[in-house]
């Protein structure tokens, strides 16, 4: 196996993709402590999460063209450096305004990981193999939301909220060393005109004119919309409506994450045997069954909904997402080996912007029942299946 396809490279790419979830999940138990220490209210502290999602979505549009022009490695080092500075600034924040600004900078650096990891995988592997690798990376990356809140809670209790951002600063140092020592440059088709506004617009227009690319991006986006709806609203639904204790909620969330891990692990094998299009369609079918099932339970029971009526359909939804996301990502970027960075950037920007917006909207529509969240899950599942079937009708990818 060539060095660039080694196990250590796969571990490094997984750590890069985990920048997003570890940066949000680790400090969640510290939100009340931040409010007390910085003498502010919960809504202001909540902005540290909203601003991070905004920066994480918007920054993705930049890194792809930059890496198509200058290479993956130097651009990635630049992004990780921004993440280091932002994390350190978070740890030293003296006011909530300082912390919000630092979180935005941290997000701009963090999003380089997911964009460039996808591009590196496309540089190294053919499309079918890329889908398999992305599935395995996704299953490993799910460890971050599984243990992040637990570790963050311990750090909060023992050392205070700043320790969480101190750990993220050290994480950035470790990733920088990994990129320097283990990641070879994989972009051997650099485009000198990749940063030309005219070229960027032309590239994006070419991708958006492709029915297959739009369908792949739609499948990934609609699937993420359901997940972000759950992330935004599940704590209010399961704790305030259903009545779970906060520690029980942690176990419920873990069950959902395990559903995703099972789906992603199985996708790594299935995509080699069945192809990306069939795996994506099967995953879409799971989301289209589980999402509306949750909605039916929620509308039938109202505020009396049982926790199993939320957690079990969501775990199945996430198993389907474990099939849809890696297959749709690989299928979207696969036909563009000479502009994989731009294709990954546009995919990530659309996916995160729309999904995060839907999550925020669902959180604001909460009415004391599970209905707004469940309705969003139901619609997301049906739209995911429709997009996945559209991808299948476009045929198979031919680029290598």
Overall description:
The structure is a single chain. The chain is globular. 82% of the residues lie in helices and 0% in strands. The protein has helices at 7-17, 19-25, 31-37, 42-70, 72-91, 96-124, 127-141, 143-159, 162-182, 197-208, 211-241, 246-274, 276-301, 307-333, 340-364, 371-393. The protein starts with 6 loop residues before the first helix and ends in a 7-residue tail after the last helix. It contains 16 helices and no strands. It is an all-alpha fold. It has two domains: 1-181, Growth Hormone, Chain: A; 196-395, Growth Hormone, Chain: A (Up-down Bundle), CATH 1.20.1250. The model has no long low-confidence stretch (mean pLDDT 85). Helix 7 packs antiparallel against helix 14.
Fold-level CATH name of the largest domain: Growth Hormone, Chain: A
Kindly provide the name of the CATH class of the largest domain.
Answer: Mainly Alpha
> How many domains in all?
2
For the sheet with most strands, the description reads: none
What is the percent of helical residues? Answer: over 70%
Beta content: under 5%
Rounded to an integer in angstroms, the radius of gyration calculated over CA atoms is 20 Å
What name goes with the CATH superfamily of the largest domain? MFS general substrate transporter like domains
Which structural class fits the helix and strand makeup? mainly alpha
Q: Shape, please?
A: globular
Number of helices: 16
In angstroms, what separates the terminal alpha carbons?
Answer: 19 Å
Q: What's the average pLDDT? A: 85
Number of strands: 0
């Amino acid at each position: 196996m060539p060095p660039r396809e080694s196990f250590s490279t796969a571990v490094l790419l997984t750590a890069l993709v985990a920048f997003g979830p570890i940066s949000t999940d680790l400090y969640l138990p510290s939100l009340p402590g931040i409010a007390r220490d910085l003498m502010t209210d919960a809504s202001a502290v909540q902005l540290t999460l909203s601003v991070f999602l905004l920066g994480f979505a918007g920054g993705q549009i930049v890194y792809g063209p930059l890496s198509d022009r200058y290479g993956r490695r130097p651009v990635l080092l630049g992004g990780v450096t921004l993440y280091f500075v932002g994390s350190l600034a978070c740890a030293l924040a003296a006011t909530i305004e300082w912390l919000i600004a630092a979180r935005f900078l941290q997000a701009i650096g963090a999003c380089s990981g997911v964009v460039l990891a996808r591009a590196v995988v496309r540089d190294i592997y053919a499309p079918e193999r890329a889908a398999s690798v992305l599935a395995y990376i996704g299953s490993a990356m799910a460890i971050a939301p599984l243990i992040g809140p637990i570790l963050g809670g311990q750090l909060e209790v023992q050392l205070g909220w700043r320790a969480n951002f101190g750990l993220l600063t050290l994480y950035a140092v470790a990733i920088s060393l990994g990129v320097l020592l283990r990641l070879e440059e994989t972009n051997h088709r650099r485009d000198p005109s990749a940063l030309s506004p005219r070229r960027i617009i032309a590239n994006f227009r070419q991708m958006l004119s492709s029915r297959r690319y739009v369908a792949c991006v739609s499948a990934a986006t609609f699937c993420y919309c359901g997940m972000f709806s759950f992330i935004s609203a599940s704590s209010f639904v399961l704790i305030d409506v259903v009545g779970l204790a906060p520690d029980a909620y942690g176990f419920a969330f873990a069950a959902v994450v395990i559903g995703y891990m099972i789906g992603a692990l199985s996708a790594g094998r299935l995509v080699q045997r069945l192809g990306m299009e069939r795996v994506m369609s099967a995953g879409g079918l799971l989301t289209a069954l589980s999402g509306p099932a949750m909605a039916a339970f929620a509308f039938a029971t109202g505020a009396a909904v049982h926790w199993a009526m939320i957690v079990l359909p969501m775990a199945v939804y996430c198993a389907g997402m474990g099939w849809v996301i890696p297959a749709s990502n690989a299928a979207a970027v696969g036909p563009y080996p000479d502009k994989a960075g731009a294709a990954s950037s546009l995919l990530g920007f659309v996916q995160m912007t729309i999904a995060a917006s839907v999550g925020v909207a669902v959180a604001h529509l909460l009415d004391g029942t599970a209905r707004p969240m469940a309705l969003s899950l139901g619609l997301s599942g049906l739209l995911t299946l429709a997009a996945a079937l559209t991808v299948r009708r476009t045929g198979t990818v031919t680029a290598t």
